[in-house]
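Researcher: Please predict.
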Amino acid sequence: MGFEGQVWRLVRREESVGAIAGEIVGEIVIEEADFPWLHGRFVPGEAFPAVQPLFARSLALSEAEDWEAFDAAYEEITSTVSMVSPAGPVAEFLLHIQDDEAWFRWSDEPFGDGRGEREADGSGSSAGSGADLDVPEMTPGLRG
């Protein structure tokens, strides 16, 4: 599919105490495409420490198969960050981050029922399109 080597970004969706909308949360350098999942190396940005606990919680809930709590926790992620592909913001994404690894699936269209990949891993989200984001240029220091 040609995804390998691409850099996808996570950006802050909204301003909050100590955070700025559009701030880089991190970048994912794609290393493997295994449809529908993309896998890569996660390079945290300056804004990542503020959202890292959200990703840790969602991963723990997914591993525990507590889908109701996972859905609520993941809603917090999608209301806080947006994913930006090399072509621009994506409508929805289901992302896991653990240490320097990230794996995700994404869609240009909303997942529909808000449940994403319920059959495979029991998770889902209801992110907005993010089309109105002012997305900053790639941060050279995060590409390393």
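Model: The CA atoms of residues 68 and 123 lie 9 Å apart.
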